[in-house]
Specification:
The chain is of the alpha/beta class. It has a single domain, classed as Alpha/Beta hydrolase fold, catalytic domain (Rossmann fold, 3-Layer(aba) Sandwich). Helices cover about 40% and strands about 15% of the residues. Helix 2 (about 50-55) crosses helix 3 (about 70-80) and helix 4 packs antiparallel against helix 7.
C-alpha cells in the first residue's frame, strides 16, 4: 500500500481525521502527524512554515502522498518545494497559496479579519475558536453534527503560543511565486461554501502548476472531509491510485 500522510489545520490536531481512518487504512499506509505545539509536541525554536515542513517530514516515510488541510496544506506545499523527493503526490483540502488579501490577491479573507481574529484569540481562546468552528460549517447541511466532531478535536488545547505562531504563518505566507516549481501531481478538494478559503484560490493555483486539478464539493464549507466523507474518500482514493 502507498504511504499517506495526514496533516491537520490550524487550531486542531490529529483527532480531526479519526472518523476517516478506518476506510483510508483499507487502501493506504496511513501516518497521522501533529504539527508542533499540538498534542504535547514542543514548539520549534523557529515556528516558520519551512521549519514545520521539516518537522513533519521527520515523522513520515521517505516518500508518500501528503494530504494537508488548510494550514496543513501549506505545510505540504512547502515540503514539496524543499524536499521534493519526499512527496509523490499532494492532496490539498481547503488550502490556498495565500490566506489573506493583498498584492493583487483577492481570492482570500481581508487582512483586518485575520488581524481581529488574532486579537480576539489572545483575549479568549475558547470563544474565538468557537467562532472559527462555526465559520467552518456555515450553511452546511447537518452542520451541527460536524461541529461536535470538530469540537472534540479541540479537547486537548495546544501549547501556549502555538495558535499565535500559526496565525503569523497564515498572515505572512505567500506561495504564489513558487507554485510553478512544484512538479508533483496535486489535487485540490475545496468546499463550494467555504467562507475562509474560496475555491477560486485553488483554481488560480492549479493554473500555475504543472499537474494540478480541482474539485468543488457542493454544499461543503471549509471541512469537506467531515461534511461529505464519502465523496472526499472517493476523491482521495482515485487520485492516490
Amino acid at each position: 500500500m502507498q504511504p499517506l500522510i495526514l496533516i491537520h489545520g490550524w487550531g486542531f490536531n490529529r483527532s480531526v481525521w479519526n472518523a476517516l481512518l478506518p476506510r483510508l487504512r483499507q487502501q493506504f499506509e496511513v501516518t497521522v502527524v501533529d504539527l508542533p505545539g499540538y498534542c504535547g509536541r514542543p514548539l520549534l525554536e523557529s515556528m516558520t512554515l519551512s521549519a514545520m515542513a521539516e518537522d513533519v517530514a521527520a515523522q513520515a516515510p521517505a516518500s508518500a502522498i501528503w494530504l494537508g488541510w488548510s494550514l496543513g496544506g501549506q505545510v505540504a506545499l512547502q515540503l514539496a518545494l524543499e524536499q521534493p523527493e519526499r512527496v509523490s503526490k499532494i492532496v490539498l483540502v481547503g488550502a490556498t497559496p495565500r490566506f489573506v488579501q493583498g498584492g493583487g490577491w483577492r481570492e482570500a479573507i481581508k487582512q483586518k479579519v485575520l488581524d481581529d481574529f488574532g486579537e480576539a484569540l489572545i483575549r479568549s481562546r475558547e470563544s474565538t475558536i468557537g467562532r472559527f468552528i462555526t465559520l467552518q460549517m456555515l450553511g452546511v447541511k447537518g452542520g451541527r453534527q460536524w461541529l461536535q466532531e470538530l469540537k472534540q478535536s479541540l479537547a486537548e488545547p495546544p501549547l501556549p503560543g502555538t495558535l499565535e505562531a500559526g496565525l503569523r504563518i497564515l498572515n505572512e505566507t505567500d506561495l504564489r511565486p513558487m507554485l510553478s516549481a512544484i512538479q508533483q501531481p496535486t489535487h485540490w478538494i475545496m468546499g463550494e461554501r467555504d467562507q475562509l478559503v474560496p475555491p477560486s484560490a485553488a483554481e488560480y493555483a492549479a493554473e500555475q502548476m504543472r499537474q494540478s486539478s480541482v474539485v468543488r464539493v457542493a454544499g461543503a464549507a471549509h471541512a469537506p472531509f467531515l461534511s461529505h466523507p464519502g465523496l472526499f474518500l472517493q476523491e482521495v482514493s482515485q487520485f492516490g491510485q
